[in-house]
Design brief:
167 residues; five-stranded antiparallel beta sheet; four-stranded antiparallel beta sheet; 11 strands
Length: 167
């Protein structure tokens, strides 16, 4: 499965607190004027919440799943950490993999590409994570990116490739 979504890392006003995303509502802005700031809560985007609708071999990006997997309370992608480091800005993205009961345990590979407006790849990262078929909250797979100040201003899209196999 390959999905593309927004990644407005240079636009702090676009990001929302996790709990405000329930039910696809726009949510409350985080209230930051510029990056980076110390995140006191994990943040996400309404578009990232909506990615929970898609599955790859039954596995989806969702957290806190309810109603036997038909609904989820939190997005499966979120900015977990954002901080200034000597060489730029470090961003940690947390992906939560929900694998429904009786779907068999899966080994999931996530490949992240951060794109500029001209489709140029700015950064890449990947993670392979076990996703057991019995976890309500899902299994977390974190990836980290290091951006220069210029790259933060150029990043606009996230391309995520998800592949699975039984284990």
């Amino acid at each position: 499965m390959v999905v593309e979504t927004s990644f407005p890392i240079g636009e702090p006003s676009a990001w929302r607190k996790i709990k405000s995303l329930e039910g696809f509502t726009p949510g409350q802005p985080v209230g930051l004027n510029s990056w980076p700031a110390k995140l006191r809560e994990e943040i996400s985007l309404p578009e990232w919440y909506a990615l929970g609708r898609y599955t790859c071999d039954g596995v989806s990006l969702r957290q806190e799943v309810v109603s036997r997997g038909r609904e989820w309370e939190e997005p499966g992608l979120r900015i977990h950490e954002l901080r200034t480091v000597p060489s730029g800005i470090e961003v940690t993205i947390e992906a939560t993999l929900y694998n429904p009961r009786a779907n068999h345990d899966k080994l999931v590979t996530l490949a992240f590409e951060i794109l500029a407006e001209d489709e140029r790849v700015i950064a890449t990262s990947s993670k392979t994570q076990k996703a057991s078929d019995n976890s309500k909250s899902g299994n977390n797979a974190d990836v980290m990116f290091l951006f220069s100040t210029a790259e933060v201003k150029q990043a606009v899209r996230l391309r995520l490739t998800v592949s699975t196999k039984d284990y």
